[in-house]
Amino acid sequence: MADIISLDKKRSDAQAKKAKGNTLCGNGHHKWRIEQGQVFDSKKGKLVTRYKCSRCGKVKVKAL
Hints:
alpha+beta
């Protein structure tokens, strides 16, 4: 005989897991990782570092 599972519990676990990263990033708590090493930006004339959030994929650039 097969095991009986509760669909409500299964759905709520899946939804909580899916929304965890989006909720954090939506509130400004990104998980920044360096995407590339230092890159020279010709418009600013400075070295810049590119960061990418590992959860949502947002990119930011910071000049040194």
